[in-house]
Design brief:
heterodimer; A: alpha+beta; D-Maltodextrin-Binding Protein, domain 2; Dipeptide-binding Protein, domain 3; 15 helices; B: flat
Amino acid sequence: MKRFFSGSLIIFCFLLIILPTSSEGKVYGGTVIYAAGADPDRLDPANAESNPAEAVNRMMYENLVKFDEKLRIVPGLATSWEQAKDGLTWTFHLRKGVKFHDGTPFNAEAVRVFIERMIGPEKPSRAGLYVPFVKSVEVVDDYTIKINLKTPFAFFLNNLAHSASGIVSPTALKTYGKDIARRACGTGPFKFVEWIHGDHLTMVRNDDYWGGKPYLDKIIVKTVKEDSARVMMLQSGDAHLIVRIPAEDIPRLEKDAKIKLDSTETLRTLYIGINCSKKPFTDVRVRQALNYAVDKEAIVQSIYQGRALVASGIVAPLATGYFPVKGYPYDPEKAKKLLAEAGYPKGFKAKLWSPHGRYPKDFELAQAVQQQLKKVGVDCTLDTMEWAAYLAATRKPVKENESELFLLGWAPSTAEARWILYPLYTTEQWVPQGNNRSFFSNKEFDELVNKFTRATNKTEMDKYLKEAQELLVKEAPSIFLLVTKETIGYSQKLKGVINSPLELTYFDHQTYLEK
Amino acid sequence: MWRYVWKRILMLLPVLFGVSLISFSLLHLVPGDPAEILAGEEANPEFIKALRQEYGLDQPLYLQYFHFLSHIVRGDFGISIRNREPVINLLKERFLFTVQLSFISILIAGLIGLLAGIISSTKQYSLFDHISMLGALLGISMPIFWFGLLLMLVFSVYLRWFPAGGTGTIFHLILPAIALGASGSAVIARMTRASMLEVIRQDYIRTARANGLREFIVIHKHALKNAMIPVVTVFGLEFGYMLGGAVLTETVFSLPGIGRLMVEGIFQRDYPIVQGAMLLVATTFVLVNLLTDIAYAFFDPKIRYE
């Protein structure tokens, strides 16, 4: 009997050693293959501009604060923070015992270097998140930092949670300078190993991660441009996770028991921009008529098979600062009436531009809009351009700009309403200076945006945000169409995948792969 | 002979100059700004300005071209606008890969094409001839994109014999090489057949047969060598195209080849990459053509390059 017990004990201990199972049933180990649709651009968060780069950067870098799955702000490398009464000073208390992948300790000095790089002469591509607001930064002690703003800014924490605000090791930054873009060095759960451009990027787990040892051993992010190839890789088991699944493949994948599909509502609103500087679009009644003329519900059902939401305004429901607004229901009779009132009882001819392949089903969407506008007498010629040419054509200054109606999408990378309303519709943001491609200009609206941006209390801020969104719908500088959903697919064995509404799919130290 | 080779290699210089001038002008003629594409819809004008300065895009075009040329002659291809990687590294990585793929593809194409062509010509109007020529017709007409996806569906998704795209092992290259080699083998098969049929009907073949030589010797020694000149031309051209990058095959199978590098570079307006890749592809094409010309002399001793 004694021998039986001691024998069992030995076997039990042996099993404990060889089975890599943790107490919660999560499993250590495994290499995950993630098939992305495009190559990352830069691994330097401050200069990264593409979703694939932001997704991999989220695994290697961390921010002072981060978004949770509902896009609320939660602690990251800062454990707590306070905002001064005047809204001008933010104090952050930093997490202790955190190290960058190169061994450099994370402390207030690292944050100072990060902020000063953003506002300094180097001008990284995402400097716009900091330059307009941040005046200076002060190291209080090793683990406390103070950021002084030029004016109060309601969404400052959102900017800190933006992918661009991932904190780079100051040592690595000194050694590599701008070439940090080709290698990464942060504090995240995964460490950079290699990047073969156009083929794959490899990361391994960071054993010293402050949140605990990550479950996954290795992540290989492969660039697979062709949609159907990605789908086949998932089906054949050559990839554990794929993003950007084309709508027509969804029904087939749904039947596959080994695959889990996950469709997340994003922050991306697709809309038809209206060049408000050109006749007849200078007349608000015409712009409203165009909004009434489009049957968005039918478009969502027929083109997107329900995998999109009808948008009533420009701000997507998941964005911080969103207020429900009464949009434009489908009402062709009202559209015709408004056109008649504006002096176009028989409608008019117009140009409609659309990219092809930039957004899910973009050209089909433009075709549907073209047909529906025709029903109220607005006869559009539909033209498509290659993306770079499209951006250039819609970015021309007002006098040279030939656009009339143009399909575009916008997703605020900071997840808040200001980074929609301000760049797209304020007067100071007219292209080519900013992103207001509609040349919409309304003093009251500009004023409201200014007010909620500088607001120091929530009630006041909400009031102005709501008014701005309502005013925008009334002025109709765009035809508001829909909010997209992003569908990803992964092996049933992969658990804890983060599919963020920011159109970023990534893993953290809790993600694991069942055997 | 060597003098001829040197002369041809020297001729590369004006060709490359022309290619650089044309690619530079075309790239700058099309609308679109690399900084703006990099930044997407959220473009920040400050950043666009800084990037234009960094890459000298704010200078007059003739100056930009001059800078580009003066760097190229020193072997400096610049750095990629999109990911800051030195272009020379990217070209090396991608070109090595394309060379691997092209070799396997041309091997497949040559083997299948030559065999099918020879047998078809010796057994004209036989069942084999009909089937192989039908196959060749299919090989030429099938869109490579569709054929690649079909191969993947059958051999990766259903049979699980080969991986569905990506790189790493020789197995990753088999399906793409078949997809890429299919049209090449078809062209070579048809050319071999036609050329062989012409040669076989000539007097000296009849004489060889009359002399009692074995059919195998007649075909392989006397006929084939003489029929090879047009086949070698096609072979060289096919190989040249493959080395120039098989954009569609690379896209379907997600392979990091030079073709995709160039096309993506064009869409991103990554000028240094596109210009570097164009020069590389042009050089390869000229060199492969030169090798083809030299091969003529081997097959036909009457051809001499003096």
